[in-house]
Amino acid sequence: MEIKKIGVYVGSLRKESFSKKTAKVLAQMAPSSIELEIVDLADLEMFNQDFDDGGRTPVSWTNFRERTGKFDAFLFVTPEYNRSVPAVLKNAIDIGSRPYGHSVWNGKPAAVISVSPGLLGGFGANNHLRQTLMFLNIAVMAQPEAYIANAATLFDEKGALINDNSREFLQKFMDSFEEWVNTHSLIR
User: Fold this and answer.
1) How far apart are CA 11 and CA 14, in angstroms?
2) CA gyration radius for the chain?
3) Domains of the chain: total
4) Residue 166 is part of a domain; what is its CATH number?
5) CB burial readout 66-78, b (16+ within 10 A) else e
């Protein structure tokens, strides 16, 4: 069985980010047919169409596009900022969607998890991100939806997941995502 490579895009740059901790836990939980690789978004310059149009595409964009284009699928793990996704994640999505007609996202499967210390689990960001991804022709997994609430209570001081209910849910999520990726790969 071919192992599918999954690019993981975390919408937080914070060192102790709950989204980063969640992404690391998910990488450890990944079923054997998928392998998760977290993509660092910290060094991407802000998107400006003039750079591509003027032939001055930043090296970080070129590297990001090449790397992202090689993945079989994507996993987006994001906090919620002002009922939407953080700028760093939206910037990465915009960079990958350009130049027009050459989107690295096009037609590939993905899933979304939002993570929040609040009670709503990043519901707004999750749904806003899904809307953007579907516009880019990314096959976003519909179920199970994943809104991880009360994130400050889920990890120990070393970043290990200590909540059994969350562990069980995230494992089911990853099993569903594996099936989504493998099924979508058959129809591509």
Assistant:
1) 9
2) 16
3) 1
4) 3.40.50.360
5) eebeebbbbbbbb
Cα 145 to Cα 147: distance, rounded to the nearest angstrom: 7
Cite the DSSP H helix spans in the chain: 18-29, 49-53, 59-69, 87-96, 123-135, 164-187
pLDDT block averages, 10 residues each, the chain of length 188: 93 95 97 96 96 95 98 97 95 97 97 94 94 97 96 94 96 97 79
Please, are residues 70 and 22 in contact by the beta-carbon 8 Å criterion? no
Q: Could you check whether the bond before residue 58 is cis, i.e. omega within 30 degrees of 0?
A: no
- Do 151 and 117 touch, CB atoms closer than 8 A? yes
End-to-end CA distance of the chain: 17
Give the C-alpha separation, 16 to 12, whole Å: 9
Owner of token pair 């977290």:
38
The pTM for the full model equals 0.96
C-alpha to C-alpha distance for 67 and 69, rounded to whole angstroms:
5
Range of the domain at 140: 4-187
Q: What is the DSSP letter of 96?
A: H
